[in-house]
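ASSEMBLY PREDICTION REQUEST
Request ID: AP-0331
Submitted by: J.K., bench scientist
Number of chains: two
Total residues: 599
Priority: normal
Notes: Please return the full assembly, not individual chains.
Input sequences:
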Amino acid sequence: MATAHKDVCGTLEGKATRFGYSDALLMLGGNDPRVFVLDADLAKSTTTERFKKEFPDRFIDCGIAEQDMVGIAAGLSLMGKVPFTSTYGTFMVDRALDQIRVTVAYAELNVKIIGAHGGISVGPDGATHQALEDLGTMRMLPHMTVINPCDVNEARKATLAVAAMQGPAFIRLGRESVPILTDDATPFAIGEGITFEDGDDVTIAATGYMVYEALLAHEELKKQGIHARVLNIHTIKPIDRDLLLKAARETGAVVTAEEHQVMGGFGSAVAEVIVQECPVPMEFVGIKDRFGESGTPDELLTAFGCRHTDIEAAVHRVLKRKK
Amino acid sequence: METMLTVQELRHLATEIRKDTLRSITAAGSGHPGGSLSSADIMTALYFRAANLATPTDPDRDRIFWSKGHIAPLLYTLLAYKGFFPKEELMTLRKFGSRLQGHPKKGSLPGIETSTGSLGQGLSVAVGAAYAARYDKLPVRSYCLTGDGELQEGQIWEALMAGAHFKLDNLCVIIDNNGLQIDGKCSEVMCLDDIAAKLRAFNWHVISIDGHDMEQCVKALDEAKTVKGQPTAIVAHTIKGKGVSYMEDVAGWHGKAPSQDELAQAIRELDAQEGK
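STATUS: Completed
Returned structure:
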């Protein structure tokens, strides 16, 4: 089978997923007059300033007032607009959680919630600015769709996809440049994971940036004679049950990988599917119940256990338990 | 086109609405009578005279957001009196399977603009609706009802900033200033002192009224429509539990249902005030 992603061993072009968001906003701005973009004084960081420049009358800077931003977006949606609220994931999800829960999710409003600067790779700003619980918190809310794109192109497609759907949705974006693994031809549909590498020995289900680390692990494991299936699970809710269960049945062992707290996050979402319908040994790669700290993205990804070497070690552990 | 009700007719309607609101709360065995009664006059003036609200689905209707969602019994009674659903259904309030949830749920009943219940969130929504209405050049006004205790929520002040910053003159907040909250007097729990002065300092047009004087309610809502370049706040000085002697100005009636005997007394008193 041909791989569904670009070669990770060559020189990889990189770009931050946040630019995929504004790439899509520029397309939407021209095509869909209902689209409004809101920010909370971080338009440069979230990249929404690109939309502001082109469509100033549909850009609202709410100031440093995230809770109000969510409410304003709710009001816009009730008048038929498609608002995108944008700020760092920590301030978006944690600061405005009650507003997202009651005003947006409970009312099933068509508000798109964007959490930029997700993960430990935010770097030197440290723990306060590193969203490590965003995916888990958002996936607990009824009616909420939760997406974590692996690269800039997938972020663009995810943004277009949530604009086209009705109802609340959350997308995580990253600050740092990450390898581009997909292109225009790579399929994207909400709720449908993508098999990036086939293999029958073990499944590595990864989300977001960790898809890249999973592919690196796949290459290394191949040298050791271990054929890992690599799944890009960009949609954490609704999760692709069929793809995960097929992988569990066919490989008999699953490792999950996320740049997020393992507790309640992506790995938990996968486990909820696996343990109920096809229990197989699992290992979880991700952040283990800790706050982040300052450092370079590289230093932090290594220190917090979000490297391909961590995935490889988890594969070896899970294979020992595989029947 | 609806015929415009007179002040006298509105007064009578507010009494009937108070009675049915209390009947529904008694039937439910729980609910929030105190704030429902303090808001009843101005919200009757809004729903039956000031607001353009012939049908709950007209795109050009005025939008009314109940930030103090706990007084849902009053909202439901108003909507039933508007004819948006049968009045008999008021007696299902808070029951399992009812469309009349303890706090308003969007989509549950015609006329509920959105879900509320966690305090402090509705004014931001009203700001967003007003912003969109102005952008689309719609003749829509956006109203929000809050309590005075609710002003202790920080998000309210974010929204007050935004409403003034965006110069939303199609936006009107009604503050039911009954002076009480669950734990006691607002001035003792967490004092806001001069609410009107604070709102003026936030660059809102402020109208202070006796919230139980129907003529003042009508005039204030009319005046708000004429204000240009800034949003309007109507500070309605009210009495929690207004119209029922044993509830008036008693914090304990914030979230407690009357018994059947207490209900009968309340209805006798309300009728007596009407001269029945």
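REVIEWER COMMENTS: The first strand of chain A starts at residue 14 and ends at 15.
SIGN-OFF: pending second reviewer
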